[in-house]
Write a structure and sequence with these properties.
The chain is α/β, with parallel strands linked by helices and about 525 residues long. Among the domains are: about 70 residues, no CATH class; about 80 residues, no CATH class; about 120 residues, no CATH class. It has a 26-stranded mixed sheet that branches. Helix 4 packs across helix 5. The longest helix has about 55 residues. This is DUF4097 domain-containing protein. Pfam families: DUF4097 (PF13349).
Length: about 525
Amino acid sequence: MEDYLNQLKAAFAEEDIEQFNELKEDLLEQLAICLEEGQTEAEVVSRLAPPEEIAADFYADLSLSAAINAKTSVVPREAIQEVFIQTQKKRIYKCVKTVLNFFKPFILLILLATLFFFLIYLFKELNEEQNLAGIPTILSLLLLAIILQVVKSWIVKKRRLINGLSSGLLGLSLLMLLFFSVTNQLLYRGRPYYKEIRLSSEKHAAFRFDSDADVEFTTVEVSSAEKPSLMVKGRFKESDIQKIERGSYENKINLTLDQENMFDVFTKTGRSEVIFFIPKGAILDDFHLGLSRGDLRLLDIQTKNFDLELITGDVYVKNIIADTGTIRSAYGDVIIEESAMNLKVKSDSGKTIITGMLGDLSIEGNKGLSILKFLRSDNVVLNNRSGRTILEDSETKKLNATATNGQVIVKRTKGELMISNETGKIISEENQGTLALENGSGTTIAIQESKVNATVSSQSGFIKWLQGPSQPVTIKANTDTGEMRNDFADLQDNINYLIDVKSKSGDVKILEKVE
């Protein structure tokens, strides 16, 4: 082969030596493959075309290429097209080959890093869960087969062995895929488990439970003679079961189960059930739930601090007495009934329904629905940016309700009421106390039968005030450029009750309420 290549090089011009080197690499690669298959070097060279013929073909291609670019040509168009197509194919092939050779080390590095991750995954699950992870095992075998094929071009003399190993790994991975699929073990599902945990002391009893799994959680009031206890039932990972078994439960339950991490991608334990039994009259120092998803039914809890965090799922709360309370829910519905606490609620898109609650209230929402009834609070702060807020039949010293482009509806509520919006709607009906309504470009509607002191302002939004004629009030209305109507403009002033309505460019309608 060395003699053959020397003769071939002599047939190439000096300016074409780069093309010769590319051809040399191809011939040496072909020789290595044939030698591995058992052929001799002489047999391989004997089947090659003479060096002069290969060089002649190369320069014939160059001549046709020159003919293509020439101003005049005597070469047939079909021949030119054929040569052009073959030349383009060769160029594309060489370009792809060059790109692959350039990126091959990076591809190999990514494959090795991924394989390393799966090997760590296998080790951790075997060590902590006593389980052979199905999908990571299969993917590890497939990655090994691919890595062997990537490095094959760098190991010329062992290509047959590498091909055999790759085929064996591929076959083994397919067999394991079939086995794990038939036995339903592709995903790790833990094992069935049931446990009752009882506190040995009620003094300063506290409860904290966190989980990233799907949990159905319930609290149940039991006899005052019993002690707080917890029941867990479902499928759990072996590591979580050991955590429960080894825990200390004197006067506090503090459990964190099914914590999601990068090594739990192929774990699916399913929904578990947790019941917390609380003796009647027991006051907990702390009650905390932190869940990714689940359904919660929390009843009859007395605690100094009530803290609840849920990403997805529904919450039903009733008869909760606490000094402070915090509820954070991303997408679920929150229902609170007949409770007493200073409460902060943060919800993204779910419904928040609160009835019969005593204590200060703060609600931060994005685009959900908030329905509030029968509240008794010193301070109520409602901020629902693009959702809908409804407050009815409540009493507060001070209300501050804001929105960006949502709806704010306040009915039959007593107190110092301040409601503001930017582009959404404000509706006020039969409220008592002092009323301040401020809107940007949205609609503002107020309906009053009784007397009230109020200020209503708007930039460009429409204002409509319906006032019952039976109560003497002073209504002053003004708009700079909008349409104006005031049915109470000629009535005698009442200095005790004043309604002041102003708009820059919106229409203002002050109308007599008709039954």
